Amino acid sequence: MDYVLRTFGLTKIYQDKHVVQNINMTIKKGEIYGLIGKNGAGKTTTLRMILNLINPSSGKVELFGKNPAKNQSIFEKIGSFICHSNFYHNLTAEENLEIHRRLMGVVSKKRTEEMLKKVNLMQYKDKKVEDFSVGMKQRLGIARSMLHYPEFLILDEPTNGLDPQVVKDLRQTLIQLANDYEVAILLSSHILSEVDYLSNVLGIIHEGHLIEELNYEALQEKKKRYLQLSVNDVKKASFILETELNISDYIICDGGIIKVYNKMDSAELNTKMVESSVEVYEMINAHDSLENYFLSITEEGDLIDHYPAN
Ligand SMILES: Nc1ncnc2c1ncn2[C@@H]1O[C@H](COP(=O)(O)OP(=O)(O)OP(=O)(O)O)[C@@H](O)[C@H]1O
Ligand SMILES: [Mg+2]
């Protein structure tokens, strides 16, 4: 298996507080892994450990099947953007990228121009980074991370503060890198919709724990379409669903609401209910929101079941 990243029990403790705890994750070639978690969940700390910018308190990281601490050259295959990236602030955007290009052994000078264009910074190439806005620095950081054709791209909150057109272009670029060049991508966000669209795998991190990983199929499942009924008698309605309509894939929610996941004719369903004196107040086609799911499992008190046993 072409694992680009494997972590084993990755843990970070700051002042007796486990800010990242026992994280086991894997990323394969060409996979886009979205790490999603609220502010302070431990995303940046995890990425910094993967990048060997900080040492784990325990556990280990394997990159391209090797121990990065003993194989520093592995980092040549990796491009990264972590918030507050270091730039030479008194140098221009182009000069900053040029330094990186030469350092990483990329021969063609054209590559610098190509990357500046990719993030819409060509017209600012001669501007000093100290005069850049936060969003412009963000774009420059992303351009730098991709400049040396990395095989593994690690982006911390890449879309934070970017305008919609840049976000759209960035998404396209990332999808293309993964699909056409099998680049593995690990990106984090505290906004689910930012990573949901791109990711093949979604890892939910909460209070330092990786509480759930959803693959593509599971993600689709969570976004399933359903028919939502609002009825006066839930018990009777569910009896009709099962016996008269042979429907088993449904759930009962609070407030007389039933969600029916089986595909079915809503007119027939309504007729059967009315025939059995079940009043149907409302019937709507809807789909589950992953956002709601994310919120529901990261809400206080609902977590204990989701923590993996240590
Ligand atoms: N150097 C440090 N010393 C002490 N505590 C730290 C340090 N770095 C991070 N933390 C704490 O670790 C926890 C996780 O921080 P981290 O930056 O990894 O979260 P995050 O998920 O990236 O959040 P955000 O969405 O705000 O970027 C936070 O409670 C933070 O205060
Ligand atoms: Mg962070």
Automatic annotation (TrEMBL):
Any one GO molecular-function label of the UniProt entry: ATP binding
Domain ABC transporter residue range list: 5-232
Keyword Transport found: yes
Stored InterPro entries: AAA+_ATPase, ABC_transporter-like_ATP-bd, ABC_transporter-like_CS, P-loop_NTPase
Keywords: ATP-binding, Nucleotide-binding, Transport
Database matches in PROSITE patterns: ABC_TRANSPORTER_1, ABC_TRANSPORTER_2
Methyltransferase keyword on record: no
Similarity comment: family membership: Belongs to the ABC transporter superfamily.
PANTHER family xrefs: ABC TRANSPORTER, ATP-BINDING PROTEIN
Entry protein name: ATP-binding cassette domain-containing protein
